[in-house]
Design brief:
There is one protein chain. The chain has 14 helices and 14 strands. The protein is of the alpha/beta class. The strands form four sheets. Strands 7-8-9-10-11-12-13 form a seven-stranded parallel beta sheet. It has a three-stranded antiparallel beta sheet with strand order 1-4-5. Strand 8, helix 6 and strand 9 form a beta-alpha-beta unit. Helix 5 packs across helix 6. About 2% of the residues have low confidence.
């Protein structure tokens, strides 16, 4: 399908992989690398309008992205329903995927499959097409999605255990210092609150034994009484450990995210929290959230039927774009499942896209996650700001952001100069710079 009458036919698609500075943030797999790969997508129309998209930049995504970029030439930016079929036709399968029960260390996103990788690739193309469409018509992306229902989108402070610097002094320095105990976590949260106005806090767990992380959450609750708190160990705990932590923190947590791996384990924990597992004390009322066991539509049926999760953390990179995110929201609403948004290391294009789609979802029950405050580099002319922990929804055409070509070129040069060691995110490999014997732990760790 073409749309020459309105100048919306695609004449050029550019893919620019970049390496972006990332702090030494710890998780159950290891530590973030000094630089993380992202892919910037630009689509240009016959009318001379360029739209922007962003997604993961690892080698597998680039391999899938180039044939899709080539196949889009001559199509209209409005032909979005054809994207999944087109991607399946031209992209093929990436060389490496993982089977059932495995975890993608790069994104800590559950099972890695060819279908998930294609969705993550086409999500960036869909956003770029929506941006170009909006710019060409003078409409914000949220208008193309049906219109906004809120003017501001709330985000949560994303707290991490972290080192003061990367091993060997690699990467870019920052002034955050280490956070390896409850006092360090509280200090980090206080800085986020004072700088950005965040009133909701999420701690990435699975790093230290559960009792240490329980103490950190308790310290946050004491520092920010009544504020929403979350804990996410990325499936690092056994079912009994998950139940114990839930029992100890049920009075202060807003929700517990992916305490154990897989739908079956989550269902068992959820049943215990409802008090329906024989012999379980139960702590009714504490919901379980996930961005690991429900990341595609195929995974919804079992998880919802078993009541394994009560909140799904949407991520438009996982689900195949902004329109699929709205479809997910409708399914969650139908089944009485809560909704929030997940985040991985990302730049301002992705934050703008998240904010645009979040503005259109009536059933958005919790503040969204965002790594963005941790990122010191961007490809935009102006960083997106947080005010009172929220991002204002732009009404400018498209995403409402402007690409800084000098910054893009500099980050691409870094990618070109890399010998390949940083072009695929690998938290376990990064950890081995500090501990040569480190291997990604087998779950459950505790």
């Amino acid at each position: 399908m073409t749309d020459a009458r309105h100048g919306l036919t695609l004449t050029e698609v550019r893919l620019t992989p970049v390496l972006v500075a990332d702090p030494p943030l710890l998780n159950t797999q290891g530590v973030h690398q000094p630089y993380t790969p992202r892919l910037i997508i630009e689509v240009t129309t016959e009318g001379g309008v360029t739209g922007l998209g962003e997604t993961y930049g690892d080698t597998a995504y680039l391999t899938l992205g180039q044939p899709l970029a080539d196949a889009l030439i001559g199509r209209s930016v409005t032909d979005l329903n054809a994207l999944p079929e087109l991607a399946a036709e031209v992209c093929g399968d990436p060389p490496v995927t993982t089977g059932a029960g495995a975890v993608d260390a790069g994104g800590l996103r559950g099972v890695r499959t060819a279908g998930k990788l294609r969705l993550s690739v086409l999500s960036g193309f869909e956003v770029a097409c929506l941006d170009a469409w909006g710019r060409a018509t003078g409409l914000p992306v949220h208008a193309l999605l049906g219109g906004k229902v809120r003017d501001r989108v709330e985000y949560s402070a994303y707290l991490f255990y972290r080192w003061a610097e990367h091993p060997g002094g690699r990467g870019e320095p920052d002034d955050w210092g280490a956070a390896l105990d409850p006092a360090g976590v509280v200090a980090q949260a206080r800085r986020f609150a004072d700088t950005h106005g965040f009133t909701s806090f999420k701690l990435k767990g699975g790093v230290f034994p559960p009792d240490e992380e329980i103490a950190a959450v308790r310290a946050l609750a004491a520092e920010f009484p009544g504020r929403p708190l979350r804990l996410d160990p990325n499936g690092a705990w056994s079912v009994p450990t998950s139940c114990r932590v839930a029992d100890e923190l049920a009075d202060v947590l807003e929700y517990l995210e992916d305490p154990t791996s897989g739908t079956a384990g989550m269902a068992e924990v959820a049943a215990a929290l409802r008090g329906t597992r024989p012999g379980a004390p139960g702590r009714a009322g504490l919901p379980l959230a996930t961005n690991m066991c429900v990341t595609t539509f195929d995974e919804i049926a079992e998880a919802f039927a078993r009541d394994a999760v009560q909140i799904v953390l949407a991520d438009h990179h996982y689900w195949g774009g902004l329109r699929h995110t709205r479809e997910l929201a409708a399914v969650c609403r139908t089944f009485g499942v809560g909704l929030s948004m997940h985040s991985n290391t990302h730049l301002g294009i992705s934050l703008a896209a998240m904010t645009q789609v979040a503005a259109t979802v009536p059933h958005l029950d919790h503040a969204c996650d965002s790594h963005y405050p941790w990122q010191t580099e961007d490809v935009l002319t102006e960083r997106i700001g947080f005010r009172d922990g929220r991002v204002d929804v732009s009404d400018a055409p498209g995403l409402g952001v402007t690409l800084d070509r000098d910054r893009l070129a500099a980050l691409h040069r870094r990618w070109l100069a890399d010998d390949g060691g940083l072009r695929d995110r690998d938290d376990a490999a990064a950890m081995r710079h500090a501990d040569p014997g480190w291997a990604a732990p087998v779950t459950p760790r505790w």
